[in-house]
Each structure stands twice: as C-alpha cells, then as structure tokens.
Amino acid sequence: MTDYVFPPQEQASVAVRGSAQRYAVHRIFCVGRNYAAHAREMGGNPEREAPFYFSKPANALLPSGSDMAYPPGTQNLHYEMELVIALGAPVFKASPETAGAAVWGYAAGLDMTRRDLQAEAKAAGRPWDTAKGFEQSAVISELVPVAQTGELKAGAITLAVNGVEKQRGDLSDMIWSVPEIVANLSQFYHLQPGDLIYTGTPEGVGAVKPGDRITGHIEGLGDLSLTITAPE
C-alpha cells in the first residue's frame, strides 16, 4: 500500500442516469468555437479554423442542480451550453469512421468562463487557464449511455437565464461532428476511458450575476440547471 505525504484527493466522477455506478473522470477537454455563429460572435472565422482545444482539471466538475458561488477575479462570468462526450475505450490516431465507437455516453454541460480574463489573455497571447480552468467551471448533468440515446447527430440545444431564452442551436450545427472531434483529438493524445470532451457552444453566450438561475436542455438527452450565488 502506497504511503502518501498527504491523502490523495477523491476521484472525480459523474453520476450515470439509472445506475448506482459512477463514471470516473480522467481528463476534461474542451473544443473552442465549434458552432459557426458563436465563432463569429467571438471574432473568429469558422470557414478557416481547424479544431482547437483547451482543458479543465477534473476537479472543476460541478453536478447539475448545484449552487455556484460567483468566482473570484472576474466581473464578467459567462455561460456556454454544450454537449459533453464521455469516452469508454482507448482511442489513438483514429479515423472519424472508427472514432465514434469509443463514445460511451453523453451529458449536458456548461463551460463557465471568466470572459474578462479570457479577453486579457487573448490580447496578451497568453494561455486561457485562469479564464477556463477554475473550480466549478465544468458543470455537468448525469451521463446517459449511448446505448440509450443512440448517436446524437441533431437536436435542439438551448439555454435560458431566469426563464428567458439566451441560446438556441442544433447539434447538427456543429462544425466538427462528434466522431470528427474524437478522431481529431486522438491525433494529439492517447485518449482513454474517463476522458470527457465538451464540444462547443452555440451563439448567445452572455454574463450572469449572483441570484441568476441557468437552465439548459439538449433534445434527446435531458436538462441541466445551475444557480449563481454570492461570492465567497
């Protein structure tokens, strides 16, 4: 038995709908600007950009239905509603034709973003870590096995703040499909069971403040919710 200097942190995991088992999380990858309209609203050109990625630590996970304290260091906290892929098999240098078989399930997710810190990082040519990889920034619903959902190629993806719709798109609007994302990412990493991939957000991202309640929905998958509370 290994004797650690300090006790190791609890294994990050996600609930699985209809099961007592949990999905142990290894890594969290996120795709940037995977919906053309959102790419344009953020100043990008989706016609010329290949997929690009950033990551969040596994301890950034926060279950749907939770309260989230308004995070420190920002005055401009944004929501980004996303489909999340959960992998269930190793993938390395795969083709889109074979990569889809590694998808174990899906969830609804929120990529919470300190937008002002992201803008500062972009302007300075610096990494996005403080803008994207902070505690509780990866909100996630229960995972649903692909055996229950089938491959999610199309379906409405929406988000509302305090009951007012802010985001509406369709999974078919993604520039890079689920198999294409997995295949492309596998050119750079030995992907493993336990890896999550947040697949990008439709247009309509915006700021929230303490007291706001966020609700999201993905057709054929389910719902997500989050309440923003006062800063710690």
How would you portray this structure in words?
The chain is 16% helix and 36% strand. It has six helices and 18 strands. It has helices spanning 36-41, 96-99, 115-124, 129-132, 146-149, 178-185, and strands spanning 13-15, 22-24, 27-32, 52-56, 61-63, 66-69, 77-79, 81-87, 103-111, 113-114, 138-140, 144-145, 156-161, 164-170, 195-198, 206-208, 213-218, 222-229. The chain is globular and about 40 Å long. The mean pLDDT is 95.
Features:
eight-stranded mixed β-sheet; about 230 residues; five-stranded mixed β-sheet; alpha+beta; single chain; globular
Present the secondary structure layout.
Elements: E1 13-15, E2 22-24, E3 27-32, H1 36-41, E4 52-56, E5 61-63, E6 66-69, E7 77-79, E8 81-87, H2 96-99, E9 103-111, E10 113-114, H3 115-124, H4 129-132, E11 138-140, E12 144-145, H5 146-149, E13 156-161, E14 164-170, H6 178-185, E15 195-198, E16 206-208, E17 213-218, E18 222-229
Parallel strand pairs: 3-15, 5-11, 6-18
Antiparallel strand pairs: 1-2, 3-4, 7-10, 7-16, 8-9, 8-15, 9-11, 9-12, 13-14, 13-17, 17-18
